[in-house]
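Today's session is about reading a structure prediction critically. Students often jump straight to the picture, but the first step is always the sequence itself: look for stretches that repeat, for charged clusters, for runs of hydrophobic residues. Only then move on to the predicted structure, which in these notes is written as discrete structure tokens rather than atom positions. Here is the chain we will use throughout the hour.
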Amino acid sequence: DRSGDVWIVAILFTTLCWISVGLRVWVRAGIIRNFGLDDWLMVAAMCFFQAYLSCQIGGVIYGTGRHHWDNTPQNVVKALRFWWFCELFYILASTTLKISVGVFLLRIAANKRHRLLIRLLIAGCAVFGVTYFFNALFECKPFHIYWTQNPGAKGCVRSDIVVRSMLAASGINAIADWTFGILPIFMVWPLKIPTRAKLWVAAILALAAIGSTATFIRIPYLFTLADTDDFLWSTTDVSIWSTVEPGIGITAGSLATLRPLLQKMIQKFGSGTTNPNSAKDPEASNKSRSQQFR
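Below is the predicted structure for this chain, in token form.
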């Protein structure tokens, strides 16, 4: 019985994400008063992720992480229904998260090529996310076959096709994450600030794309989706890493915006002096790209 593993990870990221997103809202709306589209998108991603987590916890209650033969048929049906909803909310959360990260970087980027690349990535993530969502939604026709029989029953897309589509989706997600993670290096390198400061700023901005690490770990487990006879047990690792991936992304993406809060704390509790303008958010001003990262 591995349901406890799924439960622990779900509770962990529920806590981490609510804290990090809550702090982000406080910083953007309360401290710098610059609550933008990227913040609204991150809040939306958090809402979708919370819906996902709620469905996953519901699935754990009824059988996610357990063998089918150790459960009642009625509970298996309920758990599979929760699994189906989890897949939909996972797609919505992941897609909204990536668009939020892209908009966040777009607010900072000054180079036209960088801005064009970010816009193309945002558009690509949006189009792919919508396509992926409807493919998952209509994986079985009618919908209820997914949980009243199993995901491999007649009327559902063949499990090998589902696995291949999931692998393609994970690959595209990883490419988007790595592009968003590497791009900040090129964005800050031309700035006239010390090299150490450039690396530090690039690392902070790249936090928003750190979820790609979980994407790569999740990929090998996607092959277990083909085991439709003992689906709830076989896909336990998929369930776990499907939580970790957007969970890390939402947490890290929100932490990347907390610099003004840290500077305010240093100002209040530190012994040194702090530039009063340093509490401004990196992207709050477009007047001087080099000064905003000091």
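Discussion point for the tutorial: The radius of gyration is 21 Å.
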